[in-house]
Design brief:
It is a single chain. The protein has a domain of 206 residues: Acetylglutamate kinase-like (Carbamate kinase), CATH 3.40.1160. 38% of the residues lie in helices and 21% in strands. It has 14 helices and 17 strands. It is globular, with a radius of gyration of 24 Å. Bound molecules: adenosine-5'-diphosphate and aspartyl phosphate. Aspartyl phosphate (PHD) binds next to helix 7. InterPro entries: AceGlu_kinase-like_sf (IPR036393), ACT-like_dom_sf (IPR045865), ACT_Aspartokinase (IPR054352), ACT_dom (IPR002912), Asp/Glu/Uridylate_kinase (IPR001048), Asp_kin_monofn (IPR005260), Asp_kinase (IPR001341), Aspartate_kinase_CS (IPR018042). One of its GO terms (molecular function) is ATP binding. Catalyzes the phosphorylation of the beta-carboxyl group of aspartic acid with ATP to yield 4-phospho-L-aspartate, which is involved in the branched biosynthetic pathway leading to the biosynthesis of amino acids threonine, isoleucine and methionine. This is Aspartokinase.
């Protein structure tokens, strides 16, 4: 049995958390490959080491003195090393980092040092081999992640290795340039390692007892999802359920390796199993609710639009030409609405409007900003009539004005558009009707 275990920043924020992690790893012989993140927040107002590194590097780039921030970062690591009674010095590593910052090594290199250093601490603490991810996670010469090369490098390297620590979040180009995944990317590293060694399971340890039906920052103590499919999870993580990086799904999914989300602070909890498919009936009609704020809608109206072949393509072409991706395109007989990210859209607003006028000569174009999108996801919705109706009625009772509702043909999700300020109320109302009342 081979397990890959990834520990998030919250699980490695201080020596006490490290000890919990050590106990978890030592309690199961098969936990052989460990992927650590950088130390995260020790308390809610704290700063993640990754964020300190970005700040520190910005100062270096601007030619300012960055000694204070670097000393703070160093302090975070030595607090852990001392708390664990380790005989480990990181002086050489910090000298190198300081020199590299002065030589403008790049902010991806800078950010990666949190995982690099934490990997060193973890390897010393466990007595496992340390593998620098820059040598096994490969980015091509354009800086794009190279999945095939990575798989080859990782499997070859790990074949020779009984137990190893492979830091999360970063990799390297052939010439040694360090690249990182997007934020939260240690989850991706864990998934890649699991694929490469054909792991039996990929355990992803965090600070919640699994994937929760909704964000615990919105609803107090939400129910835990016992089993979720990759498709459901993809919908939820894309829409902002941040527990697992959305790109962490692909590598393990192809191999049929289940992911188990676990809580470092409550290792006795079973957590959530993420699987390709399951015959297990979900506990509730819906599996989860997630959402994001910060969208804009562009509503285009033109009489007889539906008989104009190519109308939709022409509209979407305008967005493509401006490099703007769209989220949703609900349409009626004479209207078509395009939902886009507000921050992407705002600066190109006028070009897009002009483009639409040129492309399709609409009767009028209307825009609305500060909208939120909520995804209600569940494999159980297919076999249950009236789900959309219940969403509507819950939102009406909560006095939330629904701007848009869009049910995908897969019947796996319903997308609802509301105003930003109604976002939390809407999520709570949907949670209540499907989970608290257990219908
Ligand atoms: N549906 C959800 N289920 C569980 N946690 C969620 C959900 N949506 C958002 N979260 C948040 O995600 C956090 C865990 O992810 P993250 O901060 O990336 O952890 P880590 O540092 O362990 O990688 C939780 O503490 C929680 O606040
Ligand atoms: N440390 C990186 C990568 C990461 O995955 O961290 P975490 O596991 O704490 O989300 C970040 O903050 O983005």
């Amino acid at each position: 049995m081979k397990k890959v275990v990834k520990f998030g920043g919250s699980s490695l924020a201080n020596a006490e958390q490290f000890q919990k992690v050590g106990d978890i790893i030592r309690s199961d012989e098969s936990r052989r490959y460990v992927v650590p993140s950088a130390p995260g927040k020790r308390f809610s107002a704290d700063t993640k080491v990754t964020d300190l590194l970005y700040t520190c590097y910005d100062k270096a780039e601007a030619g300012e003195d960055f000694t204070d921030v670097l000393t703070e970062i160093k302090g975070r690591f030595y607090e852990i090393i001392k708390g664990l009674n380790l005989d480990l010095s990181l002086e050489e590593e910090f000298r190198q980092i300081e020199a590299d910052f002065k030589a403008h090594a790049g902010n991806e290199y800078a950010a990666s040092r949190g995982e690099f250093l934490n990997g060193k601490v973890m390897a010393a603490y466990l007595g496992y081999e340390f593998i620098d991810s820059a040598t096994v996670i490969r980015f091509d010469k354009n800086g794009n992640f190279d999945a095939d090369k990575t798989d080859k490098l990782l499997s070859k390297r790990l074949q020779k290795c009984e137990r190893a620590v492979i830091p999360g979040f970063y990799g390297g180009m052939e010439d040694g340039t360090v690249k990182t995944f997007s934020r939260g990317g240690s989850d991706v590293t864990g998934s890649l390692v699991a694929k490469a060694i054909h792991a039996d399971i990929y355990e992803n340890w965090t600070d919640v007892s699994g994937f929760l039906v909704t964000d615990p920052r919105i609803v107090d103590n939400p129910a835990v999802i016992e089993t979720i499919t990759y498709r459901e999870l993809r919908e939820l993580s894309y829409m902002g359920a941040t527990v697992l990086h959305e790109d962490a799904i692909f590598p393990v999914r192809k191999e049929g390796i289940p992911i188990n989300i676990r809580n470092t602070n409550r290792p006795e909890d079973k957590g959530t199993f993420i699987v390709e498919s399951t015959c297990r009936k979900p506990k509730y009609v819906i599996t989860g609710i997630a959402g994001k704020k910060g969208f804009c809608s562009i509503n285009i109206e033109k009489s007889m639009m539906n008989s104009e072949i190519g109308f939709g393509r022409k509209i979407l072409q305008v967005f493509e030409d401006q490099g703007i991706s769209f989220e949703h395109v609900p349409s009626g007989i004479d209207t078509m609405t395009v939902y886009v990210h507000q921050d992407e859209f705002e600066e190109k607003e006028q070009q897009v409007i002009a483009g639409i006028h040129r492309a399709v000569q609409p009767d009028f174009v209307e825009m609305e900003s500060d909208l939120a999108l909520i995804a209600v996801v569940g494999r159980g919705m297919k076999s249950q009539r009236g789900t959309a109706g219940r969403v509507f009625s819950a939102l009406a009772h909560a006095h939330v004005n629904v701007k848009m509702i869009d049910q995908g043909s897969s019947e796996l999700n319903i997308i609802i558009g509301v105003e930003n300020r109604d976002f939390e109320t809407a999520v709570k109302a949907i949670y209540d009707i499907f989970v608290l009342t257990q219908m």
